[in-house]
Amino acid sequence: MAMLHYTESEAWKKTPYQIIKLFGYHKEYNPHIFGQESSSAPAQAAEGMDDIDIALGGL
Hints:
Structural class: mainly alpha
Distance between the termini: 42 Å
Helix content: 40-55%
């Protein structure tokens, strides 16, 4: 089975941290697979924020 374009033998060489990061990236760039809608909530919250505030996540 090839998950995230890695064969089983390559996947066994990955650390748990690497696997979690890869799934995070996969989930971020493929929301249609996980049943998530496009992230319109941050766009709605960002209407009253400057560009730098959006970049810093509203810190």
